[in-house]
Structure formats: C-alpha cells, structure tokens
Amino acid sequence: MRLNWRMWLSKCVLMHPGFLVLLLVFYIPGTIYGYIWYDDQLRETWTTRPLWQLVFVPDSPTASLWFALALIWRLAQPGGPLRDESAAAVRPSVRRFRSLVEALGVITSIKYGVWACVVIFAGWAQGDVPRWEHGMLIVGHAAMAVCALLYARFFGFGPWAIAVAGLWTLLNDTVDYGLGTYPYLPAELEDDLVPIAAFTFALTGLSVLSAILARRLPAASARAPSA
Questions:
Q1: Radius of gyration over alpha carbons of the chain, in Å?
Q2: Exposed end of the chain (fewer CB within 10 Å): N or C?
Q3: What would the pLDDT profile of 128-141 be if each residue is shown by its tens digit?
Q4: What distance in Å separates the CA atoms of residue 122 and residue 143, rounded to the nearest whole number?
Q5: 217, 153 in Cβ contact below 8 A?
C-alpha cells in the first residue's frame, strides 16, 4: 500500500524512535562540525573580548544543539516519543524547562537556517566565489529550518517558552551587531552590515511568528499541553 505525503509527515512517522535516531545521526556530527567551523572566531573572542561573549558567537551550531537536545529528550521520554506528554509522569518544572529547550530549538533553527542561506546567496550576488562548502552549508541550514517547522507541532512549548526564547534570540542579535560578535561575513558583504543587521532582527520576529504558526498545525495525534 502506498503511503501519501500526509502519512510521511505524520507523528507516527516523524516521531518514531527509529526516525529520531536517524535524524540525530546527522544532527550530532553536524552540530560538532558547526562548532569546529567557528573555531577561529571563538579563539579570537577568547583572546580579545570578555569571556561572557563566547556564548553569543556560534549561532547555528547552538541552534542545532538545542534542537538535538529536544529530540533526545523526546526519545528518552517515559513510554517513548510517540506517547502523549500528558500521559507521561513529567514534573511541571521539568516540563517547563523542556518546553524552553524546544522553543529555542525551533525558533533559532528557523532563524539561523534561513539567515545562513540568504547571506550565502547575497555574497554570491555581490561577487563572492561559490565553493563546495557553500552548497553543503545551504543544504544543512535549509534542513535545519525545515525540520524545525515540521517538528514544532509535536513539541510542548507555549507562550511563556516562546517569549523567553524570542527575547534570548533578540539579545543574541543585540550582542552580535552591537558588540561585533556576528558571524564572519564574506568580504563582499562587510560594507552592508547595517542592512544585514536590520534583516537579522526582522528575521527573529518572523522566526517567532513561524514557530507560533507551526506549533498550531495539526499533529495527526493528541497534542502535548502548552507550558
């Protein structure tokens, strides 16, 4: 029997333990690689800036880390990831913290997934030479945004978690473009910092809105209560 696209996007498929493990096979090495990618900027920040700014440097790998942690948490949930959260014995404080991790994973994955793709294309448009790494980054970051949108409806974050995650992302933008910890840009874009900063702040708002809308999509199964 052929499975239609709705079945492939349903909770019973996307939240199946085997599928989550397969997803983590890509997410965990990708997250590690992302931190390695930021090695030079992390070293520069370590030696020339206050240490508290380190946390604001590796944007994309931290986004994928939050999302991977959300998947791992669901995978380790009593009864498995397909079990409704309301039926699982989860302490309210733990549930609230998990909802925050999920909200951070979704909002920042949408935001930095789209941001990286747009910046790469903008660099090409202004003369940056395409390289094979660009293709890898486009595929990886686009997948981050798509996965976040697909899985938001299965997560349990609510208004409180969305607000905190959104404020944290805005703080990250403020530190990046107020103190200069933004990711290294192609040389062709260094004179476009003001519009890039404006786009980045606007993208945070769009990412929060996208997370809210994606969270409201039907999950083809009982939804978890909001935290």
A1: 18
A2: N
A3: 999 999 999 999 99
A4: 19
A5: yes
